[in-house]
Amino acid sequence: MAAFAGYGGNVIFASGYTTNVYSWSVDFTSEALESTDFTSAGYRTYIPGLKSWSGSFECRLDSANAIATPGAAPAAATFSADGTRTYTGDILITSNSLSVAVDGVASITVSFQGSGELTIN
Predict the structure, then answer these.
(1) Total-model pTM
(2) I need a labelling partner for 106 at 20 to 30 A (CA). Which of 40, 60, 62, 88 fits?
(3) What is the DSSP string of 16-66?
(4) Is residue 93 part of a domain?
(5) Is residue 16 included in any domain, yes or no?
(6) Nearest-angstrom CA–CA distance, 58 and 2
(7) How many structural domains compose the chain?
(8) Over the stretch 38-76, which tens digit does the pLDDT of each residue have?
C-alpha cells in the first residue's frame, strides 16, 4: 500500500471550496448490539447497529470568508484525503471554536455531526 501526503486534502462545504483549511477528521462508527443468548457458550455476541459519523475541520480565519453557523440546516460536504479518496455526506455544524493568539494566525475549528449516509470513494 502506498502512503500519500496530506497536502492534497481539501474540504468542500455547502457548494463552495472552504478556504484556508489545514486539517480535517471524520470519525465513522457503528453500534454493537448485544445478541448474547444461552447458545453462546459463555461468550458475548454482537450484531451491527446504527451507524453514525462526525468530525471537524480547522481553518485559518480571514476577513473574506463567512464562518459556518452552528444549528443551520444540514448541508452537503466533501472531504478529500488526496484528491482521489473522498468522504461525502450532509453535515450539521454543531460548534465553532475560535483561537486567536498574539503570536499566531487566528483559526477556527468547526465541529459537525453527519446526517444520513457517509459515501466513501
Answers:
(1) 0.86
(2) 88
(3) EE-TTEEEEEEEEEEEEEE---GGGTT---EEEEEEEEEEEEEEE--SSSP
(4) yes
(5) yes
(6) 26
(7) 1
(8) 999 999 999 999 999 999 999 998 888 778 889 889 999
